[in-house]
Design brief:
Blueprint (H helix, E strand, L loop, with lengths): L1 E9 L2 E8 L7 E2 L4 H5 L19 E4 L4 E4 L2 E2 H7 L2 H10 L5 H12 L9 H5 L7 H11 L13 H26 L13 H10 L10 H13 L7 H11 L4 H12 L7 H12 L5 H9 L20 H16 L6 H13 L3 H5 L7 H11 L6 H22 L27
Antiparallel strand pairs: 1-2, 2-3, 4-5, 5-6
Helix pairs in contact: 3-9, 3-18, 6-7, 6-11, 7-8, 7-18, 8-9, 9-14, 9-17, 9-18, 10-11, 10-18, 11-18, 12-15, 12-17, 14-17
The protein binds carboxymethyl coenzyme *A.
C-alpha cells in the first residue's frame, strides 16, 4: 500500500513519512512514527486533514458530490434497493442473494420486540422529554438487559448485538414518541416491512385499524437508506472512539446518538424545518439570506453546507425528488414550507457568498418536509436519523473491533495553559 515517501525537514533533520494511496480519494501521509522519531505532534482541530482509520465501507467524493456504499452509488441504491438490503451490504460488504436477504430480514424481524421490563424505563422520563434524550438513555440501558451480547471479543455476540440494535431502534424510537404524546406503546407487527413497521408503531392506536400507506413506507425506507452511513462523520467517529476503549456496543451506539443530536449534525433536520417555518413566506427569504451572511448574527442556513461536500450532496437531490413525489401523492404539493425551501435553495445557489464557499443543500434540507408531511413532529426527525444511521455506526464499530492492530483512540494536544507553578496556601491568595 505504501508506494511514495514524503519528506519533512525540521531543525536540520529530515524525516521520511510513508504515503499511502487509497483505492479512492487523496493520498494519506502516515505520521504514526512522527512523534517517536521527531518529537513533534500534528495539530488538526476538527480533524479536517486527518484520517483516523482505514475503512472499506463508505466513500464520499466531496468535489464530485458522490457517495458510495461499498462501491455502489447512493442514487442506484435509493432507486433499486431497500433499507434492509443496504444494511446487509454495509455490514457484510456485498449485496445479498435472495436467500441471504430473506435470512437477514428474518433475523432482524425476530428481534424487533424489546424486553418487556424496558417499558418501565420510559415511565421515568418526563412526558415532554425530547425523544433523543430518551433514546440515548434507553439504548445505553440495553447493555443492562442483553448481557449475552456485550462481549466484544466474541464475533457471535458482536453479530447478535448488531442485529438487536438494527431491529430494536425503531421500536424504542416509536415508544419514545408514543410516550411523549400520551398514547400506549404499540408492539411491532412482524408481517410489515422495516419502514412500514416503524410507521405502524408510531401512528397506530389500539382503538382503530391502521393501514400503512405504501407510498409513505417506501419514502421512509428511502430516507433510511440515504442516512445509513456517511464515513467518518462526528457521530461515527464518536462510536469508534468510545468503542476503542473496549466499551460494549450498546454503550458505543448510545454515545453516537448523543453526538448526532447536535444541530450541526443530525439535529439539523429539526432545526431546518423550524427555520423554514419561521421564514414562512417567500418574500421574507432575502432577510434570512442576509442574516446567514452576517457573521455577527450567529445564524446559519440550516440544511446548507457540509464538511466534505463542496458540491451538491447527492442525498439532497434524491430527497428533493422524494419530497415532490410524496407531497404530490398526498395532494399537498402546494405546501408553503416546500415552496419556501425551493425558493431559498434557488436564491442561495445564485448568491456569491454561497457560491464562493461552495455551500449547497445537504440531506437535511428536504428530509424534514417529507417527515412533516408523514405526520411526524420535528422532535422525531433526529431519532429517525438515529434509527437509520445505527447500521452505519455498527458496521464501522465491527470493522474497527475486527482490526488486528486496533488501539485506544487518544489524541494529543497543543497545550497553551500555565507552566509548572507551586501551590499557594489559601491564606496567602
Ligand atoms: N450558512 C451560512 N454560512 C455557512 C454555513 C451555513 N449553513 N455553513 C458554513 N458556512 C460558512 C461559515 O461561516 C464559514 O465561513 P468563513 O470561511 O467565512 O468563516 C464557511 O462557510 C465554512 O464553514 P465551516 O463552519 O468552517 O465549515 P465546517 O466544515 O466546519 O461545517 C457544517 C460544516 C455542516 C457544520 C456547516 O456547514 C453548518 O453549520 N451547516 C448548517 C448545519 C447543517 O445543515 N448540518 C447538517 C450537515 S449534513 C447532515 C449530517 O451529516 O449530520
Amino acid at each position: 500500500m505504501t508506494d511514495k515517501v514524503a519528506k519533512l525537514s525540521l531543525d536540520g533533520k529530515t524525516y521520511d513519512l510513508p504515503v499511502h494511496s487509497p483505492s479512492l480519494g487523496p493520498d494519506v501521509l502516515d505520521i504514526r512514527k512522527l512523534y517517536g522519531e521527531a518529537d513533534v505532534f500534528t495539530f488538526d482541530p476538527g480533524f479536517t486533514s486527518t484520517a483516523a482509520c482505514e475503512s472499506a465501507i463508505t466513500f464520499i467524493d466531496g468535489d464530485k458530490g458522490e457517495l458510495l456504499y461499498r462501491g455502489y452509488p447512493i442514487e442506484q441504491l435509493a432507486e433499486k434497493s431497500s433499507y434492509l438490503e443496504v444494511c446487509y451490504l454495509l455490514l457484510y460488504g456485498d449485496l445479498p442473494d435472495s436467500v441471504q436477504l430473506k435470512d437477514f430480514e428474518n433475523r432482524v424481524t425476530n428481534h424487533t420486540m424489546v424486553h418487556e421490563q424496558m417499558h418501565y424505563f420510559f415511565r421515568g422520563f418526563r412526558r415532554d422529554a425530547h425523544p433523543m434524550a430518551t433514546l440515548v438513555g434507553v439504548v445505553g440501558a440495553m447493555s443492562a438487559f442483553y448481557h449475552d451480547s456485550t462481549d466484544i471479543n466474541d464475533p457471535w455476540q458482536r453479530e447478535v448485538a448488531a442485529i438487536r440494535m438494527i431491529a430494536k431502534l425503531p421500536t424504542i424510537a416509536a415508544m419514545a414518541y408514543k410516550y411523549s404524546v400520551g398514547q400506549p406503546f404499540v408492539y411491532p407487527k412482524n408481517s410489515l416491512d422495516y419502514a412500514g413497521n416503524f410507521l405502524h408503531m408510531c401512528f397506530s392506536v389500539p382503538a382503530e385499524e391502521y393501514v400503512v400507506n405504501p407510498i409513505l413506507s417506501k419514502a421512509m425506507d428511502r430516507i433510511m437508506m440515504l442516512h445509513a452511513d456517511h464515513e467518518q462523520n462526528a457521530s461515527t467517529s464518536t462510536v469508534r472512539l468510545a468503542g476503542s476503549s473496549g466499551a460494549n456496543p450498546f454503550a458505543c451506539i448510545a454515545a453516537g446518538i448523543a453526538c448526532l443530536w447536535g444541530p450541526a449534525h443530525g439535529g439539523a433536520n429539526q432545526a431546518c424545518l423550524e427555520m423554514l417555518r419561521e421564514i414562512g413566506t417567500v418574500d421574507r427569504i432575502p432577510d434570512y439570506i442576509a442574516k446567514a451572511k452576517d457573521k455577527s448574527s450567529g445564524f446559519r442556513l440550516m440544511g446548507f453546507g457540509h464538511r466534505v461536500y463542496k458540491n451538491f450532496d447527492p442525498r439532497a437531490k434524491v430527497m428533493k425528488e422524494s419530497a415532490d413525489e410524496v407531497l404530490g401523492l398526498l395532494g399537498i404539493e402546494n405546501n408553503p414550507t416546500l415552496q419556501v425551501a425551493k425558493e431559498l435553495e434557488r436564491i442561495a445557489l445564485q448568491d456569491d457568498y454561497f457560491i464562493s464557499k461552495k455551500l449547497y443543500p445537504n440531506v437535511d434540507f428536504y428530509s424534514g418536509i417529507i417527515l412533516d408531511a408523514m405526520g411526524f413532529p420535528t422532535s422525531m426527525f433526529t431519532p429517525i436519523f438515529a434509527i437509520s444511521r445505527t447500521v452505519g455506526w455498527i458496521a464501522q464499530w465491527k470493522e474497527m473491533i475486527a482490526e488486528k492492530n486496533q488501539k485506544i483512540g487518544r489524541p494529543r494536544q497543543l497545550y497553551i495553559g500555565e507552566k509548572n507553578r507551586n501551590y499557594v496556601d489559601l491564606r496567602h491568595r
